[in-house]
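ESCALATION

Customer reports they have been waiting on this structure for their group meeting. Please prioritize. Original submission:
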Amino acid sequence: MGNESHDFSPGDPSTEPQKGPSWDNPRWPLVGGESADEFTQALDPTTMKLAVKEAAKTSGKVMDAAAIEEAAGDSIRAMLMIRLYRVRGHLAADLDPLGLSHRDVPEDLTLEWHGFAGQEDKEVYVGGVFGYEWVKAGELFNVLRRTYCGHVGLEYMHISDTEERRFLQDKFESPEDTIQFTPEGKKAILAAVIRGEQYEAFLGKKYVGTKRFGLDGGESMIPALEAVIKHGGQSGVREIIYGMAHRGRLNVLANVMAKPYKVIFHEFSGGSANPEDVGGSGDVKYHLGTSTDREFDGVEVHMSLVPNPSHLEAVNPVVLGKTRAQQAIRDDLSQHEQVLPVLIHGDAAFAGQGVVWECLGLSGVRGYDTGGCIHFIINNQIGFTTSPKFARSSPYPSDVAKGVQAPILHVNGDDPEAVTFACKLAVEYRQKFGRDIVIDMWCYRRFGHNEGDEPKFTQPLMYGEIGKHPKVSKVYQDRLIEEGTIEDGYAEGLVKEFTDLLEEEFQAAKSYEPNDVDWFAGRWSGLHKPVEGEAARRNVETAIDKKLFDSLGRTLTTVPDDHEIHKTLGRVLKAKSEMFESGDGFDWATAEALAFGSLVTEGYGVRLSGQDSGRGTFSQRHAVWIDQKSEDKYIPLSTLPHGKFEVYDSTLSEYGVLGYEYGFAMADPKTLVLWEAQFGDFANGAQIMIDQFIASGEAKWLRANGLVMLLPHGYEGQGPEHSSARLERFLQLCANDNIQVCNITTPANYFHVLRRQMLRSFRKPMVIMTPKSLLRHPMAKSSADEFQGDHHFMRIKSDTKDIADDKVKRLVLCSGKVAYDLIEKRDEMGIEDISIVRIEQLYPFPGEPLTTRIKRMKNLEEIVWCQEEPENNGAWQFVDRLIEKAATDAGKNLRPIYAGREPAASPATGLAKRHQAQQESLVSVALDLSNSGKTANVTTSRPKKSNKG
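Update from on-call: job pushed to the front of the queue and completed.
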């Protein structure tokens, strides 16, 4: 909501020093709507008498004391009527094109209720409202009805900000700001509506029965969206980022985004949207996006429609994140004027999908604010087959937006001028106040949920009325003919001209072949698809030199003289300083800070967000130092030159925030974007983003992304929800080199993998199972030299003990924290023929180096895979055959043995003693300490041994 304050990140022009308690926000009003003083003063009898007396004197009216008394009473009743229309007039607005939504006019919106029945000609004093000092009661009533109960119903009195409320009030109540268009403007609106209608009709005729999720019945949206481009451009907008679901998407692609008709027809005929050699799975045509430039009145506006899956509203946070990134790139974070997000929703989805609120909730939060979003609801007054009374509890689908005090414009979709006016007003409001605004366009869906559906199965009365209802263009052209704007036959000429064009494009589509793809354009220039072959991809230097290492050390351990930190943080920084002095004992948090700081120094951006990311869930990060007296914030990494470091504590949202960060990373490959879950399993709440965008977005839409997910994972007896990040789910999604999945055990390796993410010439999403107990584990330490020289990310980490290859009889492979449990137990037992090797990157699986490692072990008899997770979870079912293949390639005919917990419905026990017993047992099985083949509640899968190899 407007410019940000309380922002952690210097470099953002909207940053202001923290004033007052940390929980305070100056944008939060104590009450909503009109203030008590504001209204009661207007209705105070004494004040009103004085106002009437002065107004009578000014206008030359002669009034005695009794007349003034009566006039003051009349004025109070008139002012109450005005206020009630401002608050409740939308309830009597003419919104439903079908006339099926029957609404009784609320009693308090009648002349009778206000005591003016039979007194329509009585003059009342209203003090300048609607430009009147004195006005007849009946005329005032008619003006209120026209203003607030016409084809646009305005909800705005829930807004606490007086300036915002008055702005909207003036736009509605001033004659020069009402719905007015020039004859040429009206013709342009009609032409846009006709293009929308005829495009759908053409598709229906040429591709009978093919799903297109047509806009039929909501075509007024087409001129309205063009108004957003035109008026946005006039008010400083240079880029618009759209997100929408299926309904009307193809129409928007063609008639708003200017995607060539022949390309869409080519796709309808089964052709690909991209050249055949590009690869990828592709997607259905009503999921695809595009980008283009359009010019109105000499102002060029770049537009992009973000591709989306079938999951309703899932694209919303992606659009907002991409908007924020583009605003940062354009240096527009202080004003939010140049980049505008526009989200187009269905009525049932806006009311029913929780991510809608998650995104609304981000609208005024530091680090996530985009300066307001225009929400356009295509209100078909029906879901798939579900009527509104079963789809929501509130009167309007838009009611959830009141939670962020967004104004709402309800508008009749059969009136294209009204819808266009609403969009124009929405742009003006957003550009002026930097806040969300909602347009709720009441229309209808002429056909079923898709063009092969029979809607009369469930809504026979509605669809009986739709069958008789004239099209939007017919309603509008009759109105224009009646008012003399166009002549009879004018619209028919537009129809013929446009359908002739469509026919030409249809014929051209038969020979059309895509020859270009905008995969790595703009800010993505210089990046490309990965080079084939593991060796080629490993060739990236991630170490830093000693000078930078030492400089970062000083930055991370120096406290400003005027900053009083917490005493415990003081001890942490003292220990950190000793690390840099000794060159030993570097922990996870320090390695991470070194990675972030080095990237920033090299000119990259780093954006870290999530729940409690500033401090870190486990008090390990301390990226933000809080002054214990003033609560001023100091962020060491933000003081570094060249790049920009940002860390944000997000709202308690997974779905929305993860989608937001994905969208940010989509727009800016030069910023390392990380989303951190408080615990790894919290990612469950964002599964749609993981499945539909992160894992498959590149294959479906040719959109690369370098987002990093940090998911705390590891079995420490903290129960089912705080042990497992559901590693198995990510591995199940792995294919076609789509993502990277890592479970890292050393701080230095974590440092290198973060730097590798930015220093390579391609981007892939990366999922990291981050540790909890390893954050401070005495064995999970790195030395200074591991960050320097020729060190790099190791996909496989060797044993901590130097065991000669020819002595190894049992190889235990594992990933993550369990490695240290195994190492400690083996060394305690004095075992000399078991090697413990860690797989740090599970996907892409390091088969080549693992094969090399196994080949060196000439006397190897057994390979074990050990994991903490139950057998049906974790990595076992993913790595099983991959390990066997590596062994086969090494000349060993060995199947891996499984050592870990038994299959379980719950990912972990919540009982400390049981957890400890299970952990000791799986370690014993992995090291073959019992020789029993199986221990309590732990499984070992022991395949038949072969004589070969």
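Sent to customer with the following note: The two ends are 68 Å apart (CA to CA).
Escalation resolved.
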